[in-house]
UniProtKB/TrEMBL annotation:
Belongs to the RuvA family. Residues 170-221 are annotated as: Domain III. It comes from Roseovarius spongiae. The lineage of its organism: Bacteria, Pseudomonadati, Pseudomonadota, Alphaproteobacteria, Rhodobacterales. Keywords: Cytoplasm, DNA damage, DNA recombination, DNA repair, DNA-binding. The keyword DNA repair applies. This is Holliday junction branch migration complex subunit RuvA. It holds the Pfam family HHH_5.
Length: 221
């Protein structure tokens, strides 16, 4: 399976890009958010990818980060959520927003994605709530684009069985989750508190996020 592509963008469309990797063009479908973050035609880029294989179809989907790719794979595991709906959810909320909505049980945010009905949104939250802490703790390191012209450095890598954490350090939410786990909080309640704290203060660094989450977890008198 193709797990990562790095090469030159030949052209961009409304929902996909064509990436030239050593003379072979790969059509990669992406969310609107991911497309907006990519450079223009003629520039070099790298994407983590997931390959959808059906009897009559082969499609590549591209993601800027491993956490975005992991959410796509998990969303696709929910009954009624296909690739189009998964990309719509990720495009509407972003990977951090998806994690926050699921951790908080906020299915109305999931429903806001185009083409996602209330029953499907509720299934997403119910079926993935136990996985939210694990994915949120992965961090969100971006794929790294090659620095120079297309050549031997442009790669196609097989996807791992499980997407590993990126080489860059985890984000504030991941570090806060780890800290709360070390303090003995259950993954589900820690994820919910961190998600709520991050929603209240999106720019908060790790110490502030931990303090805010601990206040939310404190027993109410």
């Amino acid at each position: 399976m193709i797990g990562r592509l790095a090469g030159r963008i030949d052209y961009r469309a409304a929902d996909h890009v064509l990436i030239d990797v050593r003379g072979v063009g790969y059509l990669v479908y992406c969310t609107e958010r991911t497309l907006q973050a990519l450079p223009g035609a003629g520039e070099h880029a790298a994407l983590y990818t997931d390959l959808l294989v059906r009897d009559d179809l082969l499609q590549l989907f591209g993601f800027a980060t491993l956490i975005e790719k992991e959410w796509h794979r998990l969303l696709m595991s929910v009954q009624g959520v296909g690739a189009k709906a998964s990309l719509a959810i990720l495009g509407a909320l972003g990977p951090e927003g998806v994690g926050r909505a699921i951790a908080l049980g906020d299915w109305n945010s999931i429903r806001a994605a185009k083409g996602v009905g209330p029953k499907t949104a509720q299934r997403v939250v119910n079926e993935l709530k136990d996985r939210a802490p694990e994915v949120m703790a992965m961090g969100a390191g971006p794929a790294t684009a090659p620095a120079g012209p297309a050549g031997d450095d442009d790669v196609i890598e097989p996807a791992p069985t499980r997407a590993p954490a990126p080489p860059a350090g985890p984000g504030a939410q991941a570090e806060a989750l780890s800290a709360l786990a070390n303090l003995g909080y259950a993954p589900g309640e820690a994820a919910g508190a961190v998600a709520q704290a991050a929603g209240d203060a999106p720019e908060a660094e790790t110490p502030a996020l931990i303090r805010a989450a601990l206040k939310l977890l404190a027993p109410k008198s």
